[in-house]
């Protein structure tokens, strides 16, 4: 009987994950712009009904393959800002599409997320001295920064 409950829980988890990816793909179908698609993907990583990460960053390699530059970051810059963001999301009961709508305000310069600015200020050499960000690129895998590595910047 316990095995059946475990299987049911696993099924529910998979069903939820498939739904999340379905929602992402539906949202991405609305645009062909790199910045909007990037925002949708990163919002999906950080949204509560998405993957629920605290922050997500996207870096792009420059044309000469010498540097890796911060392109977009979604999340909070500090704990105080995190609390305000989560309170606003809970208060307004924002879903993935509501969070994506925030992008219009960002683009219209009505709000300027501090973490986005911080991410865009980052630039690393594209070699073994480029640190943990370059390491993620060379490994060709996403990087999950845990607390013990959180002081890399």
Describe the structure.
This protein has 153 residues and is mainly α. It has one domain (2-149). It has helices spanning 2-28, 34-46, 79-92, 96-107, 114-120, 131-139; strands at 56-61, 67-74, 123-125. A three-stranded antiparallel beta sheet has the order 1-2-3. Helix 2 (34-46) packs across helix 4 (96-107). The longest helix has 27 residues, at 2-28. The radius of gyration is 17 Å and the shape is globular. It starts with a helix and ends in a 14-residue tail after the last helix. The relative contact order is 0.11.
Summarize the structure in short.
This protein is mostly helical and 153 residues long. It has six helices and three strands; from the N terminus they run H-H-E-E-H-H-H-E-H.
Short descriptors:
153 residues; mainly alpha; 6 helices; 3 strands; 11% strand
Class of secondary structure makeup: mainly alpha
Could you give the order of strands across the largest sheet? Answer: 1-2-3
The major beta sheet can be summarized as: 3 strands, antiparallel
Number of helices: 6
Topology record:
Elements: H1 2-28, H2 34-46, E1 56-61, E2 67-74, H3 79-92, H4 96-107, H5 114-120, E3 123-125, H6 131-139
